[in-house]
Amino acid sequence: MTQIALVASGDLRESANVMCWPAQKAMEDKLIEVLAGLGHDLKRAHPVKPEGHGFIASQREGMDIFATIDPDMPLIVAEAVWQYSHHVLAGLTTHRGPILTVANWSGQWPGLVGLLNLNGSLTKAGVKFSSIWSVDFEDRFFLEGLKSWLATGTIDHDLTHVTAFDASSVSGEDGTLARQIAGSLRQDKSIMGVFDEGCMGMYNAIIPDELLMPMGVFKERLSQSALYHATTEIPEEEARAAYDWMVERGMTFHLGQDHDTELTEAQVIRQCQMYIAAVRLADSFGCESIGIQYQQGLKDLLPASDLVEGMLNNDDRPDVTRADGSVIRQGQAIVHFNEVDECAGLDALLINRVHRALGQPVENTLHDLRWGDTDQSGTLDDFVWVFEISGAAPPAHHPGGWAGTESHRQPPMFFPNGGGTVKGIARAGEIIWSRIFVESGALHMDIGRGRAVDLPEEETKRRSEGTTPEWPIMHGVLDGVTRDQMMARHRANHIQVVYATDAEAADRALKVRAALAAELGIKVNLCGISA
Length: 531
Prior knowledge:
Layout: E1 2-7, H1 14-37, E2 40-44, H2 59-66, E3 75-79, H3 86-93, E4 99-104, H4 111-125, E5 130-134, H5 140-152, E6 162-164, H6 172-188, E7 190-195, H7 209-212, E8 217-222, H8 224-233, H9 236-248, E9 252-253, H10 265-285, E10 289-292, H11 306-312, E11 335-336, H12 342-358, E12 364-374, E13 383-388, E14 406-407, E15 429-439, E16 442-452, H13 457-465, E17 473-478, H14 483-489, E18 494-500, H15 503-519, E19 523-527
Parallel strand pairs: 1-2, 1-3, 3-4, 4-5, 7-8, 7-10, 9-14, 10-11, 16-19
Antiparallel strand pairs: 6-19, 12-13, 12-18, 13-17, 15-16, 15-18, 16-17
């Protein structure tokens, strides 16, 4: 009987680790059972803690645990939860035995998002690994993949949906536009404001400066303490004016009185102060785009940044003035990359430039590739993804804009100081999806087409309540890409989405952006569509 080591990376927040442990344990118990049936002994490499969970909860802890593991043993990283990849990344970089990352096919906490972040981080670090996922760990896809890994140390997935982008397929006019935008970036340059790097252990979300500089993109490293101080300096009447602006446009805030469990008006006013502070800091440093880490540090000082992020990424947003009374970028979104994901930030910058030049909607956002399922209502035959960002989508993505948007308190498990989300169900329409990632020391882009679709209210409710109902979601159908192809290829927990006015406009915008990325030196692959 072959012995296989199991490790489980968790959150940095103990409240989340304790809450999510039952789902993780259920998954581990099933994996142990399945592997025993195949003649293998799966054993945890670290014990369940007295605190009530069995997760690795810090980078140092992960290093110490890996120091006790035979580096040549087969190793499974099992994830039923969101996890901080840097807790285990150090150990995985020196592990010589075959590595398998495994997730349960569930939207609950979610393991799929944690798995994809770890996979993206391992890809960037150049660590060889295999990956697999399952609803119940008894299906043919999972068992055949697992048997392959046990026999050979690898799993080969179907990646026939991926083809290299051919720049000659772009029209002369659109190729010229792509070169003009690239030339403008290189000549005039763009600043990406980074409010503390490395959110939630997302190593894959950090782009080395030397890969950005040739494009004309440079980082301004900003401190979240500066954002906190600037937030506290904003007069309450300015913040209230921004709040009133949203209410007048029809946004619904679900307010209560208990700070610990409900969204309060005071939390929202504080978020509006943060919004004004962020706009002014972006302006004072000349940042075309900014990313707020928020999660660690600021969570103990301020309400969540999600309302801020949704406001920033919308062309239609409350005015913010300079000291001289002039309005900062009036009627234009200030590109914000949530969770300071720099790969998403670069992608969002390119989207903003291309879509504004083409007269297409510029509002874009990252979402977690949270989960997916067939439509249980029977309305659609397609596999429908749940794209769900942890708190904020631009209101322009929702039917009715601000009037179709509501705000709920962020879950106390993650956000002790509350703060409102920007919740909505994304409107139906043509989308372009993409992801920039780092592999083999270079930037790559996967890009494809799809649709945001409408589902019946009960089906939407099922999906929302099966994930995190306070957060905005998009029902996404991807063209030419199956569930397992997407999971096997995607190098991040995040996927970037933007609308176009119709299918023809979406096809054109995709080609221009692919040409722009290629002109900037990014290796571009089309996913689900021919070159």
